[in-house]
Specification:
With about 425 residues, this protein is α/β, with parallel strands linked by helices. Helices cover about 50% and strands about 20% of the residues. The strands form four sheets. A six-stranded parallel beta sheet has the order 8-5-3-2-1-11, with helices on both faces. The chain has a five-stranded mixed β-barrel with strand order 12-13-14-16-15. A three-stranded mixed beta sheet has the order 4-6-7. The chain is elongated and about 125 Å long.
Length: about 425
């Protein structure tokens, strides 16, 4: 009897310990920031973050969203990652003043829980604005096809999450944009919360569908593990910014131009080569208009030609105009977030043009400068015949004796003019004879 009682007491202790341990275990959520233009590196960052959160055994991941929009392909990759995520994903438009514009609308709709902070907005998801409209010169039929495709895609995502299909379609077709309170009222989002703590309190015990099965969110006393973007991903994201990619392109071209115009500098060539390769990576992730790239390259050709051909500045003017036009047409999209901003474009063109003009002036000045050393300085210089020069003889020039030759007899002691230098032999003419002529 005593043994049975001891066994029961031991079993009770084990169960109690297990319950206490379960109560002590707090839910864990990873938190990442997704801000700025949505590009391919952004999509990869979200996918890698989800994979890391799954391996860490978290209870979910929170994405703090603040974006003006981005590429359609990158947006769809992010939406696909969230829709197929093995854990709950909460997209929170945060902090106040942030926005989920354009591509951000679809990303927010794909989330298991969509939330916004007061003072934020969501909307304006027209397909042209999310980067699939091309140059804006599409035919009416093609434009309609793209719009219908985007609307159907947005509706399907909203339907899968039980949110307003009607408003999402308006955001796509009419570029409608609304505030956080309006989004909550229209069932575009699930929660409006001042901060993450209030958000977690609001969604505790909320049931969501994850990977086809129902799951409850337990967020009481949740532990938040904020993940910083890695150095590699940070660099890739920065390079994919159109402003930075554009500046790297100009730096690269300027560095290589300086290296070719003044060989041996080395450092400008190295910096230029690295910058140009980084710029090519950034441009590969953006909607580039190759006419713009060719115009910028043509401007460099004109600057080089100015050194070789004395056009009295006409080629330089053409180079500046070509660079300005190329910069303006560089990115083929009406989406402001995917174009070079005027605050960057104008100063960059001015500084780059000034740099090329200065280098051109230095190169031309070096070409026309009078030589102060070498055999070039001897041409048209005066010497003295130290022997009779009867076809061959010797000349004294700046304290040195040189072998000399002439087509006629030059007497010893006569002043001579050096006309040609071949190795250690001078071709000379008598000055007296020249003056008589």
């Amino acid at each position: 009897m005593l043994k049975r009682l001891s066994f029961v007491l031991l079993l009770i202790l084990i169960v109690t310990a297990g319950v206490l341990h379960a109560q002590d275990k707090k839910p864990l959520f990873h938190v990442i920031n997704l801000e700025g233009v949505i590009t391919s590196p952004s999509a990869k960052y979200v996918a890698e973050s989800l994979e890391e959160a799954q391996k860490a055994g978290t209870d979910g991941m929170i994405i703090l969203l603040d974006t003006p929009g981005g590429l359609d392909t990158a947006m769809r990759d992010i939406a696909k990652s969230i829709l197929n995520a093995p854990l709950p994903v909460i997209v929170y438009v945060y902090p106040s003043g942030a926005r989920a514009a354009s591509a951000g609308v679809i990303i927010a709709q794909a989330a298991h829980v969509a939330a916004m902070a007061p003072g934020t907005n969501i909307g304006a998801a027209h397909p042209v604005a999310i980067g699939i409209g091309g140059s804006g010169e599409m035919g009416k039929t093609m434009s309609q096809k793209i719009e219908n495709d985007a609307a159907a895609y947005a509706r399907s995502i909203a339907k899968s999450r039980g949110r307003s299909e009607e408003w999402v379609e308006k955001a796509v077709r009419k570029s409608e944009s609304i505030t956080a309170d309006e989004a909550l009222k229209l069932k575009v989002i699930d929660v409006v919360a001042v901060d993450i703590e209030k958000l977690l309190a609001a969604i505790d015990q909320k049931e969501v569908t994850v990977a086809g099965s129902k799951r409850k969110l337990f967020t009481t006393n949740a532990v938040l593990d904020t993940k910083k973007i890695g150095i590699r991903q940070g660099i890739l994201a920065a390079i994919s910014n159109p402003n930075i990619a554009y500046i790297l392109l100009l730096i690269g071209l300027a560095g290589l131009y300086f290296e070719f115009s003044t060989p041996g500098a080395i450092l400008p060539g190295v910096i230029g080569g690295i910058s140009l390769l980084l710029a090519f990576f950034g441009l590969a992730t953006l909607p580039v208009n190759y006419t713009g790239v060719l115009l910028i390259l043509f401007s460099i050709i004109l600057f080089i030609a100015e050194i070789k051909i004395m056009s009295y500045g006409m080629l330089t003017v053409g180079g500046v105009i070509s660079m300005a036009l190329g910069s303006f047409f560089l990115f083929d999209t009406p989406e402001p977030a995917l174009r070079v901003s005027w605050q960057v474009l104008i100063p960059a063109v001015v500084v780059a043009s000034a740099f090329f003009i200065v280098v051109i002036r230095l190169a031309i000045k070096a070409q026309t400068r009078k030589h102060y050393s070498g055999t070039e300085t001897m041409i048209e210089a005066q010497g003295e015949a130290v022997t009779d020069i009867d076809v061959k003889g010797q000349v004294l020039f700046q304290g040195e004796y040189w072998a000399a030759e002439s087509n006629y007899l030059i007497p010893k002691g006569a002043k001579v003019l050096i006309k040609k230098v071949e190795g250690l032999k001078l071709t000379v003419e008598e000055i007296k004879i020249i003056s008589q002529k």
